[in-house]
Amino acid sequence: MATASNPRRDPNTLSNYDSWVSTHVVANFAILFDEKKLAGNVVHKLKSTTDSESTEIVLDTNNVKIGSVQIDGKSSSNWELLPPLEPYGAALKIVLDHGVGRNEIVTVDIAVETTDRCTALQWLTPAQTSNKKHPYMFSQCQAIHARSIFPCQDTPDVKCTFDFNIKSPLPVIASGLPIDKEEPQSSDKTYHFQQRVPIPSYLFALASGDISEATIGPRSAVATSPDKLQECQWELEADTEKFIHAIEAIVYPYAWGRYNVLILPPSFPYGGMENPIFTFATPSIISKDRENIDVIAHELAHSWSGNLVTNASWEHFWLNEGWTTYLERRVLAAVHGEPYRHFSAIIGWKSLADSVEHFGHDHEFTKLITDLKGKDPDDAFSSIPYEKGFNFLFHLETLLGKHKFDQFIPHYFMAFKEKSLDSHEFKTTILNFFQSDVEAYKLLNDLDWDTWFYAPGMPPKPHFDTSLVDVVYELSKNWKSLPESSFKPRPSDIENLTANQVVVFLEQILLGNPLTPDLSRLMGQIYGFASSENIEVSNLYFQVGLKAGDESVVEPTTELLGRIGRMKFVRPLYRNLQRFSRALAVDTFEKHKDFYHPICRAMVEKDLLGKGGL
């Protein structure tokens, strides 16, 4: 929540959340597939945080259609949509007859419809789904897209409980626990959900389509298209409960009741989205080898960092993602061994270096705390808050010792449970926790916090255990020595490597001078990379080939770009395809742009026009 010293610390909202705070929202929507819109109403319970001083409630909206407004059950005409202020949309100003006292509640009921300019929703035709039988809809509200579904205080600095009443001809999933209610028989059913843990607006989530569920653990299920259900169940059932146990031992028991995973259609723009109760995940993690489910460990970790304890604004996004990446790797260490945590961190370091290189070493978006005033948080999205944030926390762990840092972890997550905080509160909290430990307190007090928080570019590189990458580095060195050396590649080179080790191998090949086209083709043939069902592998091999000028990867690259919408793959592939042939990159994008999610489409457009972040 906003603090007295800084009541409006989120620059990316137009709402006056320093005067009013949403405490509960009821979302009543019909999903209208034919019209590609949601229609219904939202009811806000808003608490006054002033002594009758504020007679206006200002909410965020972006390209929504407002039908009517009621205040405490009475119709009001005293409201207006203010002129748009890009990229934040148009503020909805509702004027009250009089001010209300501190902590008093006003109920505001707003009739609303989404429009075709809604950036939070993607509508898929049956042809865009895996079994091609029914339409599909899903939401992606992070960072500031909830306002394009309904008027709200669209800031992570405000959390409230939710009720969802969603009418649809197809099964519905939402970021709450399902509630069974007797319904009259009709072609459309109303699905009811409750979220009793307060959440920020960006965790509001809906999906509807041809969705079936299967059990993957004692408190977990996977949901997806019926034709993909069995393979998704197999991919996730071995490790999900192990992951939950591992993180509960590090922090404290899981707070949300159920932990489920929705495997979305392939146009989903992210690896996963940590919507409460139901993680939304890309189908690219279903690689038929259980090698890509680190994403699930990451999204599960968000159930503590991000969802329970939340960054107060997107300028402090590392508090969500750095902590989550740190916890994810602690889970992987518990399940697979400590060298695996370091191996994952080495992969992350490469990703961090790529992002810094892309933005430029002095760029604002390479800082841990960014200045986003007047900016769209999506433009700053990259691996930097994840990996620079992780490396800061790993530095603190190394500085204090793992045993001491482990004592701080549950304290931190309890102190800010169901709250939002900024980086300065984090600093104060860890200093206060170790105040009675003279040695630890001195180490923390002497730490150059300002450099970590505000210096652009790469942080100091920590010492990682390289045991799992040394063999990979050796193999990449051998390939780079060709054709001059006597090295003879054979399939056995990679037989004992995990998919993640193969990823590191390909990333090493991408560094420095490109291969010749002949060597690129040889690699694909001997190791079978081009036909790999693991997109983490095939997409990197295609980048190697494009960089080499190997025409044999062009067709499979454009084919992959037409069937996956995850930005992690799509954006680098378009960049490399553009270097190979700008005309082909633009033509491929024009052909597939309606397949992509609006967020992905906008970011690729910026990349191809030379205006984008990572």
UniProtKB/TrEMBL annotation:
Reactions that this protein is recorded to catalyse: an epoxide + H2O = an ethanediol
GO annotation, cellular component aspect: cytosol; nucleus
Cofactor(s) for this UniProt protein: Zn(2+)
Origin superkingdom: Eukaryota
SUPFAM superfamilies: ARM repeat, Leukotriene A4 hydrolase N-terminal domain, Metalloproteases ('zincins'), catalytic domain
Subcellular location: Cytoplasm; Nucleus
UniProt-annotated binding residues for Zn(2+): 298, 302, 321
Active site: 299 (proton acceptor), 386 (proton donor)
Residues in Peptidase M1 leukotriene A4 hydrolase/aminopeptidase C-terminal domain copies: 467-608
Keywords: Cytoplasm, Hydrolase, Metal-binding, Metalloprotease, Nucleus, Protease, Zinc
This enzyme's EC code(s): 3.3.2.10, 3.4.11.-
Any one GO MF annotation of this record: zinc ion binding
Any one of the GO BP annotations: proteolysis
Entry binding sites for a peptide: 140-142, 269-274, 566-568
Protein purpose: Aminopeptidase that preferentially cleaves di- and tripeptides. Also has low epoxide hydrolase activity (in vitro). Can hydrolyze the epoxide leukotriene LTA(4) but it forms preferentially 5,6-dihydroxy-7,9,11,14-eicosatetraenoic acid rather than the cytokine leukotriene B(4) as the product compared to the homologous mammalian enzyme (in vitro).
Similarity annotation: Belongs to the peptidase M1 family.
Name of the featured protein: Leukotriene A(4) hydrolase
Species per Swiss-Prot/TrEMBL record: Aspergillus steynii IBT 23096
